[in-house]
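Standup notes
- DV: blocked on the single-chain target, sequence here:
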Amino acid sequence: MTENKHMYMASTNISLSEEKFRCCNYCKGRIASHGDLSGFSQCPLCKKNFHRAPELRDDTEFAGEDSSSCARSGQVPCDLCHGMKAVKSCLVCLASYCNDHLKPHHTVPALKWHKLINPVETLKDRVCKKHDKVIELFCRKDQSCVCIECLKDDHMMHEAVSLEEEFKKRKTELKCTKRQVKHILTEKCIMVQRIEKSMKQGRQEVDSTKAETVKAFAALVASIESKKVKLIELLEEKQKAAEQKAEALIRRLQLEIAENNRMRTKLKELSKTEDDFRLLQGLPSVYTPSNTKHPFTARVQTLLHVETVRSAVAKMEEMLNKQMENITREVNLVDKEETAEEAIYTQTENVFDDELGKIQEQYAMEVTLDPNTAHPSLIVSEDRKQVRDGGTKRNVPDNPTRFDSLHFVLGNEGFIYGKFYYEVTLKGQTGWEVGVARESISRKGADLSLSPEKGCWTLGLYWGRCQANTNPPVILSLSKEPQKVGVFVDYEGGLVSFYDVDTRALIFSFTGCAFTTSVPLLSNFLGLRASARGKTKIYPLFRPSGDEGSNSAPLQINQCTPGGLAGVSTGGPMLNHPPQ
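- DV (later): unblocked, structure below
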């Protein structure tokens, strides 16, 4: 590596007194050292000699012109001049150069093959410490940067790619990860808002329930108190009536007692007299004693036994306790249900509260299959909602719209504006591809480059790996294969997004999609500038798994309706002979 650097220095042996000092921004230190080396003082620009070295001053004119070329804090300086900003670093020379000192790498043939990169300070880290070679490759098996000699030693038979290729791959994966992290953050922020909203609503509901509970129990207490007062009043009333009746009977008996006492006294006097005549005059002819029986029976029992009251109150308390247990059980049951909902949040949440739910609600479209575009081995159901691969080509009419090599089928509906969304069920599919494609997609021949540049934006499953068909393709790291995939397209926004419907997570998004095609230049000269970008129809695209047999699972288009409700079509019989 040192030899390469010396080779570069030899090939750029420009005279210190000439070309180097033609740089008007050459530093004062370099000019002063030039005078010391040459033994006399000479201006490197005008060649005027001085008997002694003149005092050098800063040239503010030149400094003002090229101040942007000076290296600032955090920028990589040029290794051959002082203070200038490097624009490139050479992995062969292991040096960084400003614009002026980089020119030989563009003009000298021996230097043109050198590898130039954006300026970096840690060039030594780009050299293999074991072989003293520039690190140019990346070993995917060991996930490490290696040189060409490393492949012969420790990385024999390992898959290795250039650093640029791996960098592009990592950059694409980084973009995808950033989108996923952004989506996750958005979902979590939405979840926080939902929780806060739920807490607020829960507090309002609890406060309302508490108020109603206090009101209900106050009414219950008031009712019990009222019943108690009425019972006491009834007891008092009955007792008072009984006492009044008893008092009337007592008064009557007292009168009778007085009469009896008077009669007894009179009889006593008559019994003592000796005058027979008086006895005959004072004694009634017939003596009838007063009635000693009265309609009164002495009561020893009370109007209401205490045990009866206690038993009734105990029954009411028991009934109240049972009702309270039911209420408490209901409250606890709601809490358990909420805990269960948290455990399966993504399955039970309201679909209208997340991003996918809003898309389903607003942009769900009815999509059917176009049998006239189906590859001869594909069998489309009668309701045009299912397709499976029969494994062998059938005798079907050939037409310009039919795929003859690729096992694809297009949707019957094309779109040239707005936003739309559709869903497919992929359960039982061992390999598949879904997405959208321009109307102009190649139908004939085996052009496998179905990339966005070819007017095709798809997601697929190949050999157990989910892949976004960008250029180059991006392998997606998913915890499990999606069973239902939702496809959302924003025509004007140039966006195609794929969602896992079951987990409600974003899988991948194509951005900056060029759905439109350019109008020929002649049209602009004919006054058609208003439509310089022609509207091109895009169609949903499908490829089911290639498992042979009539019992293979079909790819199914879900029955989507505006409002976000989606179900799987029942299918119906397959069309063995699609119409022309």
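- Follow-up: The chain has twelve helices and 25 strands.
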